[in-house]
Amino acid sequence: MKRPTSLLLLTAFLAACAAPTPAESGAFKVVASTTLVGDVAARVGGAHIQLVTLLPVGADPHSFEPSPQDLAALEDADLILLNGLGLEANLANILSAAPAPVVEVSDGITAREFESEEGHTEDDGHDHGLDPHVWMDPRNVAVWAVNIAAALADADPAHATDYRANAEAYAAELDALHNWIVEQVALIPTEDRVLVADHDSLGYFAATYGFDLAGTVTASFSTLAEPSAQELAALEDAIRAAGALAIFVDTTINPALAERIAADTGSQVVRLYSASLSEPGGPAATYIDLMRYNVSAMVAALK
Ligand SMILES: [Zn+2]
Q1: 3-class secondary structure, 196
Q2: Region 238-264: what's the mean pLDDT?
Q3: Are both 268 and 219 inside the same structural domain?
Q4: Do residues 208 and 234 both lie within one domain?
């Protein structure tokens, strides 16, 4: 069914306000946490679901605080989809009171472990020990699609066949994306396959596509820590030692500190979309566009 443009614009506007998108009557209400989880949920759910994405474009999931409107959406949901692995730490408390089932879409993915620094305690009840940034490997997003299809099929069995077919079609696109990334990375000389990131968000990408991680501006899987002067000096040494050409800074992060490090070390700051999609019509409006944008930016900076 084709919708008139004005309705599409209205849909985009309402989605940006975290309000429900118009859908068929009686549609199943799904709340997704991040724009990435929301994009995959939209692909798998298609017209059968009424989707609300909590995080606005450009929001940092590690520091996201839900609004009263978000709480109302959660209360009203038939199904709640989270990235999981501790990414949505600030939602944990309110979700325990939500009436709908909560599904962590990263369930079943073998998570990277965080090598925590000495003296660093991990006792605040969240999964800080595991790296939540699984989506930087498209094969993990295929797991999301399968998990989302299973959760939707459980909750809305009338459309189970469609959900599974949508997930399968999407997984084929993700497979093609993975193959394209392998080809693109081959354009970068082996010795230049070195990544420095604003925080530890590129671990899955590095492991899958054969990059070294020379360091991070913030020594954490989260964006919330502040580096000390000593940590910054150590990072600059590591950048020089590895000959890293670029520091990759997410669009949700203020690049000021990375700019200073880049100036000190003769590297450059390159922006990536990893924590959030771009606005609709921007260069990373879908997960697949986001990965294509990021890989192209890496190849341009490192080859
Ligand atoms: Zn992150």
Answers
A1: strand
A2: 95
A3: yes
A4: yes
